[in-house]
Amino acid sequence: MNRYILVLCTVFLSTLAIAGTYYYVANKDKNEHVTQDQQSPTIADPFALPDGNGNEISLDTVQAEVKVINMWASWSPYSAEELKALNTLQSDYKGEVAVIALCRDTNPIDGKEYLNAQSFEHVITYVFDSTDEYYQKMDGYAVPETLFLNENDEVIFHQHGPMTYGEMKSKIDTILTQTW
User: Fold this and answer.
1) Spatial CA neighbour of 128 closest among 107, 113, 145
2) Cβ distance 173 to 66 under 8 Å?
3) Which of 27, 65, 82, 159 could form a disulfide bond with 146, CB atoms 3.0-4.6 angstroms apart?
4) Any idea what DSSP says for residue 82?
5) In this model, does residue 71 exceed pLDDT 70?
6) How many Cβ atoms are within 10 Å of 136's Cβ, its own excluded?
C-alpha cells in the first residue's frame, strides 16, 4: 500500500512539475515580448517588395508619423484577427499611421486568396515576400511579427507573436507623443 501511494505521489508531482514548466515557458514568452521596448532604436532595414498588383513598395515610399510593419502568413491562426485589427488601426489614425502587411507565404497566390476570403475592409498596404528575406533580416521567430517605426524609420518596438488592437494602439500612442 505504501509503495502504491509513493508511486501515485511521484506521478502527481511529475505531472504538476511538467504543467508548471509549460505554463511558465508559455507565459514568459508572451509577457516578455509584449513589454520589451528597445532601449536604443535601430534603423529598420529597407525593403522593396511587390504589392498585389506587382507594384514595388518600399519603406521609403510610405510616409507617416508611425509606420507599422506586420509580417504574417496565411497558415498562421493569428493572421485574420491581427490583419483586421491593423486595418482598423490605420483607419482610426487617418494618415498618422501607415501599415505595411508583409506576407511570408512562399506562394503569393496563397496570401492573395487568403486576403480575398476575409470579410473586413482592406485599407493597409499588402506586400509579398516569397523568399522570406525581410523576416529573416529582422530576426523573426514567431508569426506574426510586428515592427513599430517612428517617422525616422527607427524601430521603437518589435513584437514577436500576436498583438491585440489595444496593445497596438498603446504602442502607437506612445510613439506619437515622443519627440525624436
Assistant:
1) 107
2) no
3) 159
4) H
5) yes
6) 12
How far apart are the two ends of the chain, measured CA to CA in Å? 71
* The Cα angle at residue 128 between residues 114 and 63, in degrees rounded to 5: 110
Torsion on CA atoms 51, 162, 43, 107, rounded to nearest 10: -30
| Least confidently predicted of 30-34, 109-113, 128-132 | 30-34
Sign of the torsion formed by the C-alpha atoms of 171, 172, 178 and 180: positive
Identify whether the C-beta of residue 134 lies closer than 8 Å to the C-beta of residue 45. yes
Which residue blocks in the chain are alpha helix, DSSP H?
2-35, 79-93, 108-116, 133-137, 165-177
**Residue whose cell numbers read 508559455:** 26
Q: Give the pLDDT of residue 6.
A: 57
CA distance 82 to 165: 8
CA 152 to chain centre: 20
Average pLDDT over residues 122-148: 94
Do 151 and 178 meet the contact criterion of CB atoms below 8 Å apart? Answer: no
The residue whose grid cell reads 500500500 is: 1
Q: What is the pTM of this model?
A: 0.77
Query: Alpha-carbon distance 149 to 157, whole Å?
Result: 7
Query: In whole angstroms, what is the distance from residue 90 CA to residue 100 CA?
Result: 10
